[in-house]
Amino acid sequence: MEDNTNGADKNTKEGKLIIFSAPSGSGKTTIVKHLLEHPELGLEFSISATSREPRGDEKDGVNYYFISLREFKDHIKSGDFLEWEEVYRDNFYGTLKSEVERIWAQGKHVIFDIDVAGGLRIKKKFPDRTLAVFVKPPSVDELKRRLKKRSTESEDRINMRIAKASVELATAPQFDTIIKNYDLDTAKKEAYDLVADFLKTGTGQ
Question: Which of 13, 122, 146, 157 is the most exposed place for a label (fewest CB within 10 A)?
Answer without folding.
Answer: 13
